[in-house]
UniProtKB/TrEMBL annotation:
Pfam families: SNF. It comes from Halobacillus litoralis. InterPro entries: Na/ntran_symport, SNS_sf, YocR/YhdH-like. It is found in: Membrane. This is Sodium-dependent transporter. The keyword Transmembrane helix applies. The chain crosses the membrane at residues 12-30, 42-63, 84-114, 144-162, 174-194, 214-239, 251-277, 297-323, 335-360, 380-402, 422-445. The keyword Transmembrane helix applies. The lineage of its organism: Bacteria, Bacillati, Bacillota, Bacilli, Bacillales. NCBIfam families: Na_transp (NF037979). It is a multi-pass membrane protein.
Amino acid sequence: MAREQWGTKLGFMLAAMGSAVGLGNIWRFSFVAGNNGGGAFLILYLLFVLLIGVPLLLTEVSIGRKAASDVVGSFQKLAPKTPWYLTGFFGIASAFLILGFYAVVAGWAIFYFWNYINGSFFTSPEVGYEGAFGQFISHSWHPIAWTALFMILTIVIVLSGVKKGIEAANKIFMPLLAIILIGLAVFSLSLDGASEGLKFLFQPDWTAFSNPSIYIAALGQAFFSLSLGMGAMLTYGSYLKKENKLPSATLGIGIMDTFFAIISGVVIFPAVFAFGIDPSSGPPLVFITLPSIFEQMPFGGIIGLVFFFALILASLSSSVSILEVPTAYFMRAFGWTRFATSVLVGSIMFVLGIGVSLGFGLWSGVTPIGDLNILDSMDYIASNILLPLGGLSMALLVGWYFKKSEALEATDMKNGLLGNVWFIIVKFIAPVMIILIFLNQIGVISL
Ligand code: PHE
Ligand code: NA
């Protein structure tokens, strides 16, 4: 059977942007920035997106398009008889870890949407928004039921196939989310805490740079947010026709993703200070902050409803790109149908999600890494370790294994200034930076 392909280049762009823009921009960006001192983190994050993220995004998509295969098969095809294909298995492992917790957080978003449908979050519940959220996530099975619903939606889109399912779903949701977020940002700026929030986000506290974990946090956020390093972009690239041009497409994805992150920072942090919320509240941060904003706004109930609807759709367009990575691999390697593969893989991810969800209640004492709970541990391994390692491996393949002319051809670049800058980044700068950040994290060097 012929491999599937995108209908149009716009279809690819929307799907790749849909993959990038998701909970990472709103939920993860805010709490990681909040945990890591705001402004200092933002500077590093932007630096890494520009210097490592976008060049490697181009690299990753080009690997997929050149090989026209899944995340394991692409490395086997382009670098036969080398261990490079192991990158693919790292990517598949990351997909299980990431969707395992992504589906739980997206489930929380569906629960919020439901509370705006039935009106119970229009005004603060008796225990407050923070209290209501705490009760909900620690419940034994309520959050798991919402996770299940989100996983089912993800599976249904993926089993409908590349063009019909994934491509169609993205065209409406992204613009809608952008419009609501801009509106929310304007409102947030009118709150009493606005200047304090903006200071926190944009004015770096220079002493924060001496904390080694801020570097790995910013690197991990750049990779997670750009859907980079696990093969989601590679797999989407593999459905591209040869005539589509890559550099402008990947730059567009990077700009769009960064725009969504900054704008959600402008929504969240003024409100965090206005409502006296602790910026380092961790994963619950936006789920406590947002309803307090909506409560203050005229027509806040309706806006909250539309916002959470758009957030669910943005999450879906990301989750399908995660599920697609192992699905494409197992379909090819074992000859399974798309239907059976996506149901099986999605179900295993759901089981992981049950563990993640219990980590906020029954299993809240379980801390696999240091004092990190189950969600934070899975996130740490995937986002801060596996994704950067995947990106490093892709950079080494294209920078060192390929000939320069081959690398330029794969990315539609000429041997001019831009092509050379990109190549030097991929060959030297990005790998060195990633390795330095790892060494700094384990204490071998000190940045
Ligand atoms: N980039 C997505 C987001 O920001 C999450 C994601 C990570 C998607 C890794 C695919 C691969 O929500
Ligand atoms: Na993102």
